[in-house]
Design goal:
Elements (H helix, E strand, L loop, with lengths): L15 H7 L9 E8 L5 E3 L7 E4 L2 H12 L4 E7 L16 H12 L4 E6 L13 E2 L2 E2 L1 H18 L3 E4 L6 H11 L6 E8 L6 H6 L20 H13 L3 E5 L5 H10 L4 E5 L1 H12 L5 H15 L3 E4 L2 H8 L6
Parallel strand pairs: 1-3, 1-4, 1-12, 4-5, 5-8, 8-9, 9-10, 10-11, 11-12
Antiparallel strand pairs: 2-3, 6-7
Helix pairs in contact: 4-5, 7-8
Length: about 325
């Protein structure tokens, strides 16, 4: 006769009530950040072909309605990406007082005083060449780009941003932005650094959404090699030392080991970015009926929390928040 097990973990799984009682990690709408794409024009609500359910919005009632929906589902933070009216070598609309992100910030700050407004700070959407900084001899000039990032961050702070999020992986970007913010009287504006951003194949759909594909080459000379983990810890430590208030790992799903490693090395809040390619793969499989979209999305987002993320940027955020509150979609 087989010995009777002394431990029976299944007892703690018998019912929904006990599973809830002993659950180790919780996911809630308050953990989620909704990305939003804004562009010039009136009455524009344009779906991104490669990202079903994700839209580009004009800064008018179209954006208002989307943010009202996001707020109604318990999400308290958005991340803004802008599509400029025109592009040039320096990406000058990026730091224009009347730039598209600046317009969106002023409108949202007026209508939603308590909404947490985060802005992406990079050059790729605004430059004619699509790279993340100033070009010199066909390569991004790191130090010349820092001055641009400082100007962008100040303009966003003055328009109402609570947090600026530099994403270009320039060396010294956090220190440069912190100096610019402080010297301009914006010392309360926080910095969420894309401290660990890999040169990933998972960004493809985003480049359509933000019209940000490089005109030549790729971004491997400034974004990280997917094979490297120790380098991620170095990048995170450098940004923390330069004054970052929050750190990010991007992408999320293929880099959960990196999320865990960074989590174990820092006391700063840590954000994971559930990126466009991850979103689009789930959407495509769900449309074929191959997976249960709700179940897979919530499982993936919970995995990011379990790995150590305090918050998650996700294109699924709006739907996930509805599911978490017991809704069945629209």
């Amino acid at each position: 006769m087989s010995p009777i097990p002394l431990q029976r973990p299944r007892r703690r799984r018998r019912s929904a009530a006990i599973r809830s009682l002993v659950r180790e990690h919780e996911l809630s709408p308050a953990d989620l950040i909704q990305p939003l794409f804004v562009l010039h024009g009136r009455g524009v609500e344009r779906e991104v072909r490669s990202m079903p359910g994700v839209f580009q919005f004009s800064v008018d009632e179209k954006l208002d309605r989307e943010v009202d929906t996001v707020r109604s589902r318990g999400i308290s933070a958005v991340l803004l990406f802008g599509l400029p009216a025109s592009k040039d070598d320096a990406g000058s609309e990026n730091y224009s007082e009347d730039g598209i992100v600046q317009r969106a910030l002023r409108r949202l700050r007026e209508q939603h005083p308590d909404l947490l407004l985060i802005t992406d700070v990079c050059c790729c959407e605004y430059t004619s060449h699509g790279h993340c900084g100033v070009l010199r001899n066909g390569s991004v000039d790191n130090d010349a780009t820092l001055e641009i990032l400082g100007r962008v961050s100040v303009s966003h702070a003055q328009a109402g941003a609570d947090i600026v999020a530099p994403s270009g992986m320039m060396d010294g970007m956090v220190a440069a932005i912190r100096s610019s913010l402080d010297s301009s009287g914006n010392s309360d504006t926080a910095i969420l650094s894309y401290a660990v951003k890999y040169a990933s194949g998972f960004y493809g759909p985003f480049r359509e959404a933000a019209d940000s594909a490089p005109a030549f080459g790729d971004r491997r000379q400034y974004q990280m090699d997917p094979a490297n983990l120790r380098e991620a810890l170095l990048e995170a430590a450098l940004d923390e030392a330069e004054g970052a208030d929050l750190l990010m790992v991007k992408p999320a799903l293929a880099y959960l080991d990196v999320v865990r490693a960074v989590r174990e090395r820092t006391q700063l809040p840590l954000v994971a970015y559930n990126v466009s390619g991850e979103y689009s793969m789930v959407k495509a499989a769900a449309r074929q009926g191959w997976i249960d979209e709700c179940r897979v999305v919530l499982e993936a987002l919970t995995g990011m929390r379990r790995a150590g993320a305090d918050a998650i940027i996700s294109y699924h955020a709006k739907d996930a928040a509805l599911w978490l509150r017991g809704g069945d979609g629209e």
